[in-house]
Amino acid sequence: MGKLFLLLLIVVPAMEIGVLILSGNTLGIPVTILLIILTGVLGAALAKKEGLNAIRTAQLQASQGQVPSGVLLDGICILVGGVVLLTPGFITDALGFFLLIPQTRTVFKGFLQKIFQKAVQSGSFVYVSNNRWNRKP
Question: Which residue windows are transmembrane per the record (predicted)?
């Protein structure tokens, strides 16, 4: 997993630079810069909207005594999508919007659930409950 992450840290920025150069040559530098700023602003607004929706849903589920597990995965996707959208580039922007739009986010949530299930089954991820609020003195 570490090698894959290192590879992504090298390959993705190189691809982003190539796409930005191609865009600058095709559309022009001012238009490319404007598109980068526009996607950042739109992404920040969408991340804020989706994040607030996730918080409201989690609060509602918690007030009804439900565990907001699906909403927590939504929150992780929204956080990662928002951060990725703030980095300049069109490839990362596409990934960020993919994580922020609820219909496409479900695909990534399913992927995350499979990763968590495999980690729990293999024993590399252990959940320990430390519920201090329900302990009796």
Answer: 26-47, 67-91
- As a whole number of angstroms, the distance between CA 101 and CA 135 comes to 40
User: Residue ranges of the domains in the chain?
Assistant: 2-122
Helical spans, DSSP H, in the chain: 2-27, 29-63, 69-86, 90-100, 102-122
Q: Choose among 1, 22, 25, 30: nearest CA to 91.
A: 22
Q: How far apart are CA 114 and CA 2, in angstroms?
A: 19
DSSP 64: T
Model confidence pLDDT, tens digit, residues 3-27: 888 888 899 999 999 999 999 999 9
Q: Give the span between the Cα atoms of 79 and 42, in whole angstroms.
A: 15
pLDDT tens for each residue of 73-101 = 899 899 999 999 988 899 999 999 999 99
At 58, list the tokens.
């989690």
